[in-house]
TrEMBL record:
Pfam families: LMWPc. Its EC number is 3.1.3.48. Keywords: Hydrolase, Protein phosphatase. GO terms for molecular function: protein tyrosine phosphatase activity. The active site is at C9, R15, D123. Residues 3-149 form the Phosphotyrosine protein phosphatase I domain. SMART domains: LMWPc. This is protein-tyrosine-phosphatase. Belongs to the low molecular weight phosphotyrosine protein phosphatase family.
Length: 155
């Protein structure tokens, strides 16, 4: 059974699709499965934001076939690790957790780089285009740490 990792943001069109693509690119496909979801439902069924698709493509990662979906309570059982992009996502997801085990699966992704600091990945949706490059860089660094830990533990 592969180890399953879920990336979560608000819309599932900007940050978490990038995080999914980046982490998947760093892990062996036979042992790990990476997915993403949004806490909101506005973009269900849609492709990631074009700016995220372009930013990923510049880094040789194709996220264009991803489809937006909403986080669901069953995801707590399906996934082994749930990484959220910001404190608001953290509160929204943890609110739905019914057990301490489920709650403990939820981590702020940048705590992998800055332990205990609870730093947000900023939402680039309404910002400047270079916001996507900044987000990419943060997620790439965090996913390096995550991939090393996961491979050490499970591969
Ligand atoms: P994301 O960005 O959470 O990184 O996918 C957003 C995209 C869309 C919206 C909010 C955040 N929205 O409100 O439509």
């Amino acid at each position: 059974m592969p180890v399953k990792i879920l990336m979560v943001c608000l819309g599932n069109i900007c940050r978490s699709p990038l995080a999914e693509g980046i982490l998947a690119s760093k892990l062996p496909k036979d042992k790990f499965k990476v997915d993403s979801a949004g806490t909101g439902s506005w973009h269900v069924g849609r492709q990631p934001d074009e700016r995220s698709i372009i930013t990923a493509k510049k880094n040789n990662i194709d996220i264009s076939s991803q489809k937006g979906r909403q986080f669901a309570i069953r995801d707590f059982d399906t996934f082994d690790y749930i990484y959220v992009m910001d404190n608001s996502n953290y509160n929204d997801v943890v609110f739905l957790a019914k057990t301490p085990e489920h709650r403990n699966k939820v981590q702020l992704i940048l705590n992998e780089l800055f332990p205990g600091e609870n730093v947000d990945v900023p939402d680039p949706y309404y910002g400047l285009a270079n916001g996507f490059d900044k987000v990419y860089k943060m997620l790439d660094q965090a996913c390096d740490v995550i991939a090393h830990k996961l491979i050490e533990k499970h591969a």
